[in-house]
Specification:
By secondary structure, this protein is of the alpha/beta class. The protein is built from 20 helices and 23 strands.
Length: 623
């Protein structure tokens, strides 16, 4: 929220960490494990106890081992792909992302894998006379795009909400637009979901009014029907007066641990804004979809990802409800995309006590490692920095620079435990102080366990410094950049969050490439849509919403940007042996574009046309 309240943050509170709210099984009567946010929901107090190293007691919430998915009998989608015949693609531009053969004249696919790639003459001979011929018609074929950091389960859950994202990700420019969209949602859903009007992804920093919405704004839609709207950060919701009454939230209601009920100035009367742990007051009353409804929502997200050319998705910070949904989808053969899951660090014991084999393919679902959360977000001014914010939020001291989620000792132990078990480690680090903490933990664990090919990854990596990149290269740590920040919040970062000097360096991809390091690019869905075309455009242009260039020296080429969503993205997942480039023996994960991204003007990259997406030789999207 742009109007931040210092009382909203407690020492050690899991601020900007919505994943903490649902890290354990519910203990309140009637609260489904498959709640609308998967928030089936331990209270924030439980998350705090996890962060402090305490175990839930017997009367509270117990751990539950992550068991490997069980499968029904019958032929799966992947079985059918393995038995498929030969298809020959020719007549277009085939960019392989293989440095040894950057361009090819033809590609043959058989049994879900690349049979041959090379000249049209050679590939045609290997494909045989029975091959199905596909003429690309001058279009461009590339390896399928890889979403190397996002939250596909939360994205699916929010598909049941009205999209209130600012333009161009949604239709919103003003508070009046929010009111209009929720009224349309009410009409289209015959009164909402379970009687509630639900919206998501609203961002007050980008509204014309430049203020947060309150219960008064939502009351203009209805005072007789409950309304809940999720902020784009996922750590704030706004409800109307009817919802407050239904939830039993009044002037007498105390703030829950780790959360804040915002009040009208000078009073105790709630204004409808619930921050952090206070959101758990609302979650139990939200409509609870059935497992079948959740699978349908996951289908919709996969359809959207496929339309953007994505063939592998990620579920970062997987919570138990996400695990339940993904394993159910795998067992039902409902994963058209591959999904790589990284369980949240509070589930490390659950993961260790189960029988899941890391990086084994469970019918399209893999578990890649674990995800740590070390700070918040720069746009909300909760990222942990080494220097103060350019404009310090109201109520904070002039040296305010955000804050950590865990202490150094805890971070070091988490990394050491993962290294001991041979698990890959991701860490959410937006601020450079958080990155210092993670790099320090990696260095300590490496000194103990030795250097190895672990591919530890700094997720988001917005404010990495040059000296940090040097250390990361030495330790074999990768950055994964949320590079579309340059557009969505670039002006905000320059003018209010970081200032001109630091703002120009967000997502320093060029500095990374100049060191010969591998890197990836991501969108962090549902924070912003997982449209990889936006990553290509943002990385090559670095234009803000006001059409200003933010750090021109950090721009990269279209080919370099493509690496960040293909070959290097596969490498980050330990899948570069089967994905990320068009090479013989790799999976036939392909995307066909109308245009060639390496020859069109870089300013048009976000407008590329995805014609077809192919997963293991099967077309999963076609215009």
């Amino acid at each position: 929220m742009t109007d931040m309240n210092p009382d909203g943050h407690r020492v050690g509170c899991p601020c900007c960490s919505p994943y903490l709210w649902g890290v354990t099984r519910p203990h309140e009567p009637g609260l489904s494990r498959r709640g609308f946010f998967g928030a089936g929901a331990a209270l924030t107090a439980t998350a705090l106890s996890v962060l402090s190293g305490k175990k839930a007691d017997a009367a509270g919430i117990s751990a539950l081992a992550f068991a490997a998915p069980a499968f029904t009998t019958g032929e799966t989608r992947r079985d059918k792909a393995d038995a498929a015949g030969t298809t020959l693609y020719r007549g277009g531009i085939i960019r392989t992302m293989n440095e040894k053969m950057p361009l090819a004249g033809a590609v043959a696919v058989r049994g879900g894998r690349i049979l041959a790639v090379g000249s049209e003459e050679d590939v045609t001979a290997r494909a045989g006379s029975d091959a199905r011929i596909v003429d690309l018609g001058g279009r461009t074929m590339l390896p399928g795009f890889i979403d190397c950091h996002g939250h596909i389960c939360i994205t699916a859950l929010l598909m049941g909400f009205r999209n209130l994202a600012p333009k161009p990700a949604g239709p919103i420019g003003s508070i009046r637009d929010i009111q209009r969209e929720l009224a349309i949602y009410r009409d289209e859903t015959n009164g909402g979901r379970g009687g509630w009007l639900l919206g998501a992804n609203y961002d007050d920093s980008l509204l014309e009014e430049k203020r947060a919405i309150t219960r008064s704004d939502l009351d203009e839609i209805s005072t007789e029907q409950p309304i809940l709207v999720y902020h784009a950060s996922l750590h704030v919701v706004v409800v109307n007066s009817c919802a407050l009454s239904l939830l039993g939230i009044s002037a007498e209601t105390p703030d829950p641990q780790g959360g804040v009920i915002r009040r009208w100035p000078g009073t105790r009367e709630p204004n409808g804004i619930l921050e952090e742990g206070a959101i758990t007051l609302a979650l139990p009353r939200l409509p609870q979809p059935t497992p079948e409804e959740l699978l349908d929502l996951l289908d919709k997200v996969q359809d959207q990802y496929a339309a953007w050319g994505i063939t592998t998705a990620q579920d970062g910070a997987t919570r138990r409800p996400d695990y339940d949904l993904l394993t159910l989808a795998a067992s039902r053969d409902r994963l058209r995309l591959d999904v790589v899951a990284y369980p949240f660090f509070t589930h490390m014991d659950d993961l260790a006590s189960g029988d899941i084999e890391m990086r084994r393919d469970y019918n399209g679902l893999k578990f890649g490692g674990v995800k740590l959360m070390l700070d918040g977000s720069p746009q909300a001014k909760t990222a942990w920095l080494t220097e103060p914010y350019e404009v310090v939020p109201a109520g904070f001291s002039s040296d305010y620079s955000g804050y950590r989620i865990v202490d150094d000792e805890t971070a070091a132990k988490l990394v050491d435990d993962a290294f001991e078990r041979g698990w890959q480690v991701y860490a959410h680090c937006n601020g450079d102080a958080a990155a210092d903490q993670f790099i320090g933990a990696i260095a300590k664990a490496t000194e103990k366990h030795g250097l190895s090919d672990r591919r530890s990854t700094v997720i988001h990596a917005q404010t990495l410094r040059e000296d940090q990149l040097d250390l990361m290269k030495k330790l074999g740590v990768m950055p994964s950049y949320f590079v579309s920040h340059t557009f969505y919040w670039g002006d905000w970062h320059r003018d209010s969050v970081l200032g001109a000097r630091r703002g120009a360096r967000i997502s320093p991809v060029r500095s990374t490439i100049d060191r010969g390091m591998r890197y990836t690019l991501h969108n962090d869905s549902p924070v912003v849509p997982s449209d990889c075309r936006m990553l290509l455009w943002s990385a090559t242009n670095r234009k803000t919403r006001s059409d200003k260039i933010l750090g021109p020296e950090q721009r990269i080429t279209a080919h370099e940007a493509l690496r960040g969503i293909t070959l290097d993205a596969a490498y980050q997942h330990f899948e570069d042996d089967i994905k990320g480039s068009i090479e013989e023996g790799k999976l036939a994960d392909l995307v066909i574009l109308e245009e060639d991204p390496e020859t069109v003007a870089v300013d048009t990259l976000r407008d590329l046309t995805v014609v077809e997406t192919i997963k293991r030789g099967e077309t999963i999207f076609r215009v």
